[in-house]
Amino acid sequence: MKKIIAAAAAALALAVVPAQAEKLKVGFVYVGPVGDHGWSYQHNQGRLAVEEALGDQVETTFVENVSEGPDAERTIERLAHDGNKLIFTTSFGFMNPTLKVAKKFPDVKFEHATGYKRADNVATYSARFYEGRYVIGQIAAKMSKTGTVGYIGSFPIPEVVRGINSFMLGAQSVNPDMKVKVVWVNSWYDPGKEADAAKALIDQGADVISQHTDSPAPLQVAEERGIVGFGQASDMIRFAPKAQLTAIVDNWSDYYIARTKAVIDGSWKSEDAWGGFAANMVNMAPYTNLPEDVVKMAEETAARIKSGELHPFAGPITKQDGSEAVKAGETLGDDVLLGMNWYVKGVDDKLPE
Amino acid sequence: MRLELVRRPEQSRRMAMLSPLLAIALTLVSGAILFAALGHDPVRALGVYFIEPLTTSWSVQELLVKATPLVMIAVGLAICYLSNNWNIGAEGQFTFGAIAGSGVALSLNSWDSGLLLPLMLVAGILGGMAWAAIPAFLKTRFNTNEILTSLMLVYVAQLLLDWLVRGPWRDPGGYNFPESEVFSDAATMPLLIAGSRLHIGAVFAVLAVVVAAIMLGATLKGFEIRVLGQAPKAGSFAGFSRTRLTVFAFLLSGGLAGLAGISEVSGTIGQLRPTISPGYGFAAIIVAFLGRLNPIGILVAGLLLALSYLGGEAAQVSLGISDKITKVFQGMLLIYVLACDTFILYRPRLVRANPTGEAAHGRA
Asked: Is the ipTM of this complex over 0.85?
């Protein structure tokens, strides 16, 4: 009897173990639902791209709607316990939980999006969305008749403030008198609140809506009210075929595939990646509902940013309080951009302090 | 023909005890049907959901971590509800307790002393009490509806927290991200098991259960709570003060919610963040009723609800089932508990249409 069991166990081990050992398990933690059609949706597209590109070599899992509170650490740790050797945590609020779990699992590699703390097995990555913001700022200034743009913000963290500033600088490069009104909804994904914010902004005279929240709701409101806007994180054209002018599309696929390959071939290192147009991390969705000259301008601007000829934060830039942020001929450094907590001149809002 | 609910003259004690178990059984059966409809093997799916989290020591520890704030808050709420005070704002008291306790931690973050943590806990309790005292005061002084005031104060507390972590309490070395500094070791709850997240807050939760059970079962205060809750007039004749009891119940439940808040921040999160709770204060209301407003029952119910959260996560990871399943399970559980309770108190009766009454209406 014992022999039979031993033989069976051996057979089982032979049959099962090698097949599993070859597969790299990759886990993803999302802050929103996969169906938000924005931020988390786009990360999930990246996950699917990894599966498609690497096929049998990987097995991926994800957990969605993970609150950025006490649950995050458990969720990340569960994925590590579950045998995932590479884990992407895709929201800023997962930073400290990721680092805590990483300490307990030194052989697991972690990738944290939009954070700034790294460790030997924790890398960080983000995209220079502000490059796209500059382009849509220019488009907004061209398309607005009232000269007022509504901007729906999630949280006043540097990434979002940077986006508003870049948008404003783009708009001012076309029309120096452009006004931007900001409403904060204090959520990344809350279609109801986002729609209300859009309505409030339109009632205050905005005729172009831009958003830094993840649902298509503001764009849908724009469509209903007959004005225009921009998609966020993913191409939202099917939610607003008449209202979407373009969208800033996050493209995580290339990065996720490269990092997963790096773990498989053993070349993975903890790094900080911050890519924009040039790295193909940020793309513009097709330009729609726009006159030809505006499309041409947008394409040219995007190309100039991509080639490095144009930097959205090239001086001279004046802060809202009138002081000088950077002189003509100089450009704001990444260190300033990463901690940005002030508005440029012309933004019609006070940063929540 | 219509269905009527008729009050039963006598309630079966045995059924009253069995009702939560029946509700759980019905939830499991419905869950199995649900999983089967989604195309999963129901036995395996239920196993992943309800059994797997209990099989590794890590997930059992996490279960206790998750149940700790739920039980702590629900015990206080039960006493509130038994005394006919409807405190819906435990989430706000949790938040304000966390703010008060963290205030101590952050202002004394370099003070490496064993006194720091007790001081924080006391501040957390007082913070929760203070926040609960507002609806209590409004109710006793102006007869305001406490359901409304306590609920509204949740949002005030959350926005206050939001403002603090984005403004005055923001980590100066944190690139303006909305987080406080990470608490020092002296300001962190000691762990019960090294390497886990299980902290001494779990012990506080069990203590709260024991103390509340004794108070309700064997003291005059417990009698007062029950009498004033069920028959306010009889209570007044007995010389009990409704006003004083309202204040007592709110302060007690607020204090426990505040303790849960600072324990969670200091024990499991380690810093103040804009979001510190996935809705513990509201989930605890389910726990309180699932536990039949009985401290021991609440302990069991808290563990069960925590299990439903963990199981939902496990099902997402191993079966690829949407996270909405967790909410469906919690909803089913609550509905079945309420339905079972209703059928213990009431008997359904099929009433034939009253020929005269109906006819009169029909021909008028």
From this structure: no
